[in-house]
Amino acid sequence: NLDAKNCIAYYQTDVPPLLEHYVFYFKDAKTANKALDKLGKYDVGMPGTIIDSANCMVAQGVLLEDGRGYVYIIGKSPEKNWLSLTGEYLNDVFQQIKAGDGYEQVDITEPFTLAREYELSDDSTINYLLPVIKLQQGEMNYRYTVPSTHLYLQALGTYQSRITNLEPELEQTLQEWRVINRYWDSQPDIKYLATDEKTLDFLLQQSKERQIVMINENHFSPDNRLLVMLLLDDWYKQGFRYLALEMLWDKNINGRGFAASHSGFYTKEPMASKLIKEASNRGFKVFGYDDFSKDRERNQAKNIYDCTFKVDTLAKVIVLAGFEHISERASAGGRTWMAAEFKQTYHIDPLTIDQVEYKTDKRYNLAVIDTVSAPKKRRIQADIYVSNNLNYETFARLNHYVDYIIELPDTVINRMNKLVQSDYIISIYNAADYRADSTAIPIYNFMIKKPAPGKITIPLQKGSYLFLLKNTYNELIFSGTMD
After folding, report:
1. Strands laid side by side in the 20-26 sheet
2. Where would you tag: which of 25, 37, 376, 441 has the fewest CB atoms within 10 A of its CB?
3. Are 183 and 358 in contact (CB under 8 A)?
4. By 3-state DSSP, what share of the chain in percent is helix, strand and coil, each rounded to 5?
5. How many other CB atoms are found less than 10 A from the CB of residue 62?
6. Which is higher by pLDDT, 32 or 162?
7. Pick from 265, 246, 247: nearest CA to 159
8. Is 396 in contact with 366 (CB distance < 8 Å)?
9. CA distances from 103 to 98, 100, 106, 233 (A)
């Protein structure tokens, strides 16, 4: 019954006992008493304390120094948690309230650090749900400057991208992030050199005589990895045998043939995992090349060269890099990006394909930008610019995937719907990979919100799969196989 404009904080627990916690501010005693009268009948306990047993609520008033008003801290719970509430608040919370000046500034956890705290379970498997939930709950902690908002959107997008059916939510995050970073989204007069499947033909025509192709990605845009997968077969036919991935840290990837939880940070996304699996199956040698020293660009170029042309002069190499690393322009500060470093040092001219600069015209899944009609000022200097609007559904159709159906028993559905404080996720794994290593990365993640459906249809490549249904806290609820 209190006015929401007086509420300055709200928290709730997400594990039992279920408690709600409010902080209300009132500018003077008259306003405070008038507001508190709206709470209804209550039993007064210790001085300044309200114990409302009928509504399972406790409250403690605090007078701020120098007459700056009153704060009331209120705890509320369901009836079954009333004893927990009163015990915790009367004996603990209310005894430790402090008000006044001189407190240290609270440092808000950096968003990537926050998400990582909830990412890895004790058994080294990945919790895909909880990091997204925690980032969403903490959103307002980061939306106070453009740089902090930028970092928050990048973190949120990264963790949203790992849940395959969150594509619409991810698209909203990505669009806001692109606006902040001033990438080109809406260009009504832009023209195209090729669209949709003709884009693939165009790229293959350009790559066939090259020794090395460098294509970039936004690390939280799985659609960028989908384009690489669409080209893998034809690139292999053109003689390409090496796939260099900035995102990969795993030295044993070729022996294993699939990504695991320790293989890298961005490799935890299902389409990244699928790209590694698809490339390995086709016969590509997959390797990571990133470097985190002061000479990152130069050392990235050196690592690519050392793993390919240094030992195989006839090598043909595909490089998937992040953002500006494929740029052939030296920055204003004298910095030279990885692609330019590679060309200058090893005298091999890479074909550079950008997928980040433009994301235009949703009529086309893919389009090659005619740069004559496009704005001249660009962050990234590349040979080819592609607008990529692919999604998993389109990718599955182009690859002639078949529908696999997961049916959940009524007992499982009833259990899921009864638990108030949990969402659910179904992770689908290549069955052989998971049985070889339970830390394998899934090839598809499907988030379930209540009420839980009895049947879930997911298009997949023909194969043998294992699926795990887990709750928010990564606890296994149900599992099964699909053949």
Report:
1. 7-12, 20-26, 70-76, 57-63, 49-52, 43-44
2. 376
3. yes
4. 40, 25, 40
5. 17
6. 162
7. 265
8. no
9. 10, 8, 9, 61
Q: What is the residue whose two structure tokens read 């235009």?
A: 360
Q: What Å distances lie between residue 62 and 43, 49, 65, 72, CA to CA?
A: 18, 10, 9, 6
The backbone torsions φ and ψ at residue 57, rounded to the nearest 5 degrees and listed phi first, read -140, 140
Joined together, the tokens standing for residue 18 give 């279920």
Burial class of residue 311 (count of CB atoms within 10 Å of its CB; 0-12, 13-18, 19+): exposed
Locus of tokens 């033909």: 201
Give the number of other CB atoms < 10 A from CB of residue 336. 19
Nearest to 426 by CA among 391, 478, 380: 478
CA 282/CA 357 separation, integer angstroms: 30
pLDDT (tens digit, 9 = 90+) per residue, 281-307?
999 999 999 999 989 999 999 999 999
Q: Report the alpha-carbon distance of residue 36 to residue 61 in Å, rounded.
A: 10
Q: How far apart (Å, rounded) are the C-alpha atoms in residues 34 and 57?
A: 18
- pTM over 0.85? The answer is no
